[in-house]
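Look over this one:
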Amino acid sequence: MYRSYSGNDRRRFQRWRMNLSVIYRVDQPVTVRLMIGDKEVEATTLDLSEGGMALLTDYNIPVGTSLFIKFTLFKVNSDGKVNFYGPIMIGGEVRSNIPSDKKYRLGICFSQMDPQDKTEMAGFLNRTEA
């Protein structure tokens, strides 16, 4: 199969496969918030980077929708001790929505993040690659 590739990756940050539970709430537009309900929804993270994440959710969230996302990072040390950071609260925008077996894979670009959370997440991701 022929696949065209221009050689330009649009992502600025490397993504790491993750399986974390996250909670999100629709911010804008109001029509989507009314469709989902003004509630927190649980989803699963498929991958994570300093600039965005992929989520698997039951809801068909349109591209361009603004979300508030909340999650906790954790790492198990070699001695079995678990270190937690969070909760991290991030504003993000849905950039892609791909249907997948009665669920939806959302590509999220982070738009608002506390500087301390950004530093902690970068440190977490850098430690993950080792």
Remarks:
- The chain has one domain: 16-128.
- Strands lie at 16-17, 21-28, 41-48, 52-57, 66-76, 82-100, 103-113.
- The longest helix spans residues 115-128.
